[in-house]
Design brief:
The chain is α+β, with helices and mostly antiparallel strands and about 950 residues long. The protein has 29 helices and 34 strands. It binds one RNA strand of 85 nucleotides through helix 7, strand 9, helix 10, strand 13 and helix 11.
Length: about 950
RNA sequence: GCCGAGGUACCCGAGUGGUCAAAGGGGGUGGAUUCAAGCUCCACUGCGCAACGCUUCACAGGUUCGAAUCCUGUCCUCGGCACCA
């Protein structure tokens, strides 16, 4: 039996004993348990850096509380953990220290696993996944081959984003502001053959799916930004003197078609060459093209100067037959839409500027206001308007969507275009010129081309005979890896040395977890269908675009390969907020760890030398700014449960959380207070009293409140109930004379369950200390059900007393000033019956849904008016009752409308009230002595 | 410029028409307990006051019997997108 004693403080080091007990009992392993609903709780698996940091701790504390709650609530919970262990940092470290990425990774995994276990997270470690395990990555290769068969994977010689620091290409999404997302290096454009996945085929599904999943609004908005859906029309313009070619343009504003005065092509547009070779404009065009070719899309976006080159050629307007000049523009992006734009200077500012610069006509075809006079434009009018100046009948006067529709109808009818949708998202470039990733299973044969590695030769393993001191891809340094025979013709060939983007690893690991030990298949369809989709997914907002889009895509792609039936991987997503901390710096600007700083009266100095320290902004904890707190030292000093309690109570899961040392000590204090509580019942007696019924009812009420909060992931609110409010309830019980040991025992047993999601070690210590031999973690908590009317009455009565005391105390403080000494006795005057009747009539009036204003008219018909002066009643209603009637809570209303007798309650609690107010005597009266007495608020006359 | 999230008391933070002078925590003040400190418990923590008043939830208006909450406008903070046709 655990030794619980009030004098002893919470023992952080015995937490490991319970961790071992959980592991030994297999409490967190799950399987198909018949009759239990499933719950899949998941956190984004981490990259195994050397140490667990506070961000991890927060993320997993949230997930663990949810998982533990669901187990308690009777679910079969899948809660696995693993490591996203492929990737650049290990390879870079290998280059630096001359080790192998595998050794570094395995070492890190060992360290961080021990730290995660020390936090008491309830993972089923038997399902652990590691991306760099060939048993895992072989399936990346297998999927790649299936997608290749489906035409979902293709190879293209393309200009791509090259990160000169990582020595590898990057996907579009991995280029932020023209820089590599990890290295921060300015990205260059290179032309190399690369592997792509056709994620664009799924753009519409990825867009539509957002309606069916429960993601935070800002994440949905981020994803929509990335997908970049534009609705409009693709329109073909014939070229004068060239019947074989058509210039296709995409526009979101078909309603401006009659305002087109020129076309602009991207410099790399295939037709540009055809139109310009051999013309006087050729040189100008080719230099513009060369200039633009080396720029990323981002740099093009940054172009200040809009440059154009005329072609001397004309296109034919499909609806009017007008001749319109064709230009080349440096701002047109070849890879978006069709790489050609119909330019409408009157209604697009960029075209307007261009037209002014090159003296191209501007045709105003949309009126800003209906029937307004049309003037020359000083700038483009880009809003929706009424069509005007249409050279064809049937268009003028149409507005907005109607106008667009009418134009699309016309071009469709005349076979020169159609309504269409364009996307900003591009195909996913997955080739990386790096070692520490999944080898792409392709063999390049001189005669057969790129040949897939046959399934029975999978996995293509990463070779060990590589050197990490070479420039470029270490895979190319392997003497054995590249040599392979062509699977098709048998000729000596070369293996592909690109590896896959590591986002592929994280795009399906959640599927693998469900059937993690399957050696035959990536997973059994029935098993995936049984568990998926993930009911609660928790991770950082930084993955809102890449990981969360790729995973959604991959899930749909595998579904279409017939591997499972799931449409969306994550039903509900929670992005936990950042953990922040003040930054500290020396005067020369070098960052200093918080633990090295002493703060007194807001002035900071370095502990070691006393030199002054500047307190900087509160920012996200980061190694580079050194504003970090190492979880390990907190666990060592205060235990995992203190850290968990602090994290859950300091802020809502989605909110930013500022680290505070005071917060930790305050959590520690509360934990210690709770720790000793069960022991205290040993000094209780066996008396039963009326307050016993209250404690039981209160606990049931608390359990219900707590469950409700846990159901909607309001962990902070739930912890407030389980770790603070119930303790105060217990105090009240004791204050009111409660002293029943048996009741206390069952009270603590139930309460222990509520403690367990947030502070599982403490909960087990309680459970054990109360004489139970089993593990709390393996138990479920039955639903309490709704409170009975009897229980509600008991609770209401006590609420009334508490409210009354609060009211009486307030009056007492003022009375004291008048009497000149603390009051010694009090007369409590309950309001007259008619006031109560009036209140009840008024309440019933508004409860029935009537407007409160109409009640005054009913007053003269009330029975109470027979005894009372109507004027007095009306005055009370207007002045005091009307404002008050809405201030009564549901509880108050119930009490008021119910059978509670105020005088009787006071009399029954007379002694208690006297001692609380420090009075020697108390009497209760119902008369007209005090006009101020109101229902629920008796007058208190002190003397 | 566009989109999204916000602005609540000394601090953190809950609160989306009346239960709000506004939960909870921290900090502060007073009291009880203690030889004492810590812990714990109780009370107070906008102003006024023998209750019924006044002022307050970024700012300014509006709707309503009633607004922290709804509407309009303004200011500010954070995040994302941005010559995407």
């Amino acid at each position: 039996m655990e030794c619980l004693s009030m004098s002893e403080s919470y023992p952080p080091h015995s937490e490991t004993k319970w961790q071992k007990a959980w592991t030994d009992s297999g409490a967190f392993q799950q399987g198909k348990r018949s009759g239990r609903p499933t719950f899949y709780c998941l956190e984004m698996y981490p990259y195994p850096s050397g140490k667990m940091h506070m961000g991890h701790v927060r993320n997993y504390t949230i997930g663990d509380s949810i998982a533990r709650y669901r187990r308690l609530a009777g679910f079969d919970v899948l809660y696995p953990m693993g490591f996203d262990s492929f990737g650049m940092p290990a390879e870079n470290a290998a280059k630096e220290i001359g080790a192998h990425p595998r050794e570094i990774t395995d070492g890190n995994i060992k360290t961080i696993t021990a730290q995660l276990q020390r936090m008491g997270f309830s993972y089923d470690w038997s399902r652990r996944i590691m991306s760099h395990d060939e048993k895992y990555y072989r399936w990346n290769q297998w999927f790649f081959l299936r997608m290749l068969e489906q035409g979902l994977v293709y190879r293209k010689h393309a200009a791509v984003n090259w990160d000169p620091v990582e020595q590898s290409v990057l996907a579009n999404e991995q280029v932020i502001d023209g820089k590599g997302w990890r290295s921060g290096a300015v990205v260059e454009q290179r032309e190399i053959p690369q592997w792509f996945i056709r994620i664009t085929d799924y753009a519409q599904q990825l867009w539509d799916g957002l309606d069916d999943i429960d993601y935070p609004e800002h994440v949905k908005s981020l994803q929509k930004d990335w997908l970049g859906r534009s609705e409009g029309a693709t329109i073909g313009f014939a070229i004068e003197g060239d019947t074989n070619s058509v210039i296709e343009v995409f526009t979101t504003r078909p309603d401006t078609i009659f305002g087109v005065t020129f076309l602009t092509l991207a410099p790399e547009h295939p037709l540009a060459e055809k139109l310009l070779i051999g013309t006087e404009f050729e040189d100008e065009w080719s230099s513009l093209r060369d200039e633009v070719r080396v720029m990323s899309d981002f740099d093009r976006g940054m172009l200040k100067e809009k440059k154009g080159v005329a072609t001397g050629r004309y296109a034919i307007h499909p609806l009017t037959g007008d001749k319109i000049p064709i230009w080349i523009g440096n701002f047109v992006i070849a890879s978006y839409g069709t790489g050609a734009v119909m330019a409408v200077p009157a209604h697009d500012q960029r075209d307007f500027d261009f037209a002014k610069e090159y003296e191209i006509p501007i045709h105003n075809v949309l009126a800003e206001k209906q029937d307004a006079e049309v003037k020359d434009l000083e700038k483009a009018f880009e809003g929706h308007g009424w069509m005007i100046n249409s050279p064809r009948t049937g268009f003028d006067g149409l507005f907005g969507e109607d106008a667009k529709r009418a134009v699309i109808d016309a071009i469709e009818k005349e076979n020169c275009g159609k309504g269409s949708i364009q996307w900003k998202i591009r195909d996913w470039l997955i080739s990386r010129q790096r070692y520490w990733g999944t080898p792409i299973p392709i063999i390049h044969c001189e005669s057969c081309g790129a040949v897939p590695v046959p399934d029975d030769q999978l996995p293509v393993k990463l070779p060990d005979d590589v050197s990490f001191s070479v420039q470029g891809n270490p895979l190319e340094s392997s003497p054995t890896f590249q040599e392979a025979d062509c699977p098709s013709c048998g000729k000596a060939s070369k293996r592909e040395t690109d590896t896959m983007d590591t986002f592929i690893d994280s795009s399906w690991y959640f599927l693998r977890y469900t059937d993690a030990l399957n050696d035959e298949k990536c997973f059994e369809p029935e098993v995936v269908n049984h568990w998926m989709n993930v009911d609660f997914y928790c991770g950082g907002i930084e993955h809102a675009q890449m990981h969360l889009i790729y995973s959604r895509f991959w899930t749909k792609a595998l579904r279409d390969l017939g591997l499972h039936d799931i449409d969306e991987p994550f039903q509900s997503l929670l992005c936990q907020g950042m953990v922040t901390h003040a930054t500290f710096a020396k005067e020369d600007g070098t960052w200093v760890l918080p633990t090295d700083v002493n703060i007194e009266n807001g002035v900071a100095s370095l502990k070691s030398t006393g030199e002054p320290i500047i307190i900087g902004r509160v920012e996200k904890m980061s190694k580079s700014k050194k504003n970090v707190v190492d979880p390990a030292s907190i666990i060592e000093n205060y235990g995992a449960d203190t850290l968990r309690l602090f994290i859950l109570f300091a802020a809502q899961p989605v909110a930013e959380m500022e680290w505070s040392d005071q917060g930790i000590t305050s959590a520690w204090r509360q934990l210690n207070l709770l720790y000793g509580l069960p022991q205290s019942i040993e000094s209780w007696g066996t008396d039963t009293s009326e307050i016993d019924a209250w404690l039981s009812a209160r606990l049931s009420q608390r359990v219900n409140q707590w469950r409700e909060l846990m159901e909607c992931n309001d962990l902070r609110g739930a912890v407030e109930i389980s770790h603070f409010e119930i303790q105060k309830d217990l105090n009240w019980y004791r204050r009111r004379g409660g002293n029943n040991r048996d009741l206390g025992h069952s009270f603590f047993e139930t309460w222990a369950h509520l403690l367990s999601p947030a502070t599982p070690h403490l909960a087990e210590m309680w459970w054990n200390g109360l004489g139970n031999g089993d593990l709390l973690a393996a138990r479920t908590l039955q639903e309490t059900g709704e409170l009975s009317t009897g229980q509600i009455a008991v609770l209401d009565r006590e609420t009334w007393i508490r409210n009354f005391l609060e009211h009486a105390r307030r009056v007492s403080r003022i009375a004291e000033k008048h009497i000149g000494k603390p009051p010694n006795s009090a007369r409590i005057v309950i309001c007259e019956e008619w006031k109560r009747d009036l209140a009840i009539a008024g309440l019933n009036h508004i409860i029935s849904g009537e407007n409160v204003k109409s009640f005054a008219a009913n007053i003269s018909n009330l029975k109470l008016v027979e005894q009372q002066d109507l004027g007095q009643v009306m005055a009370l209603w207007g002045k005091r009752m009307l404002p008050q009637i809405f201030k009564w809570s549901d509880e108050d209303r119930r009490i008021l409308l119910g059978a509670l007798n105020e005088a009787e309650v006071i009399s029954a609690a007379k002694e208690f009230i006297c001692s609380e107010l420090g009075l020697s005597s108390l009497e209760v009266g119902i008369d007209e002595e005090s006009k101020s007495a109101m229902p629920m608020a008796p007058a208190v006359i002190y003397s």
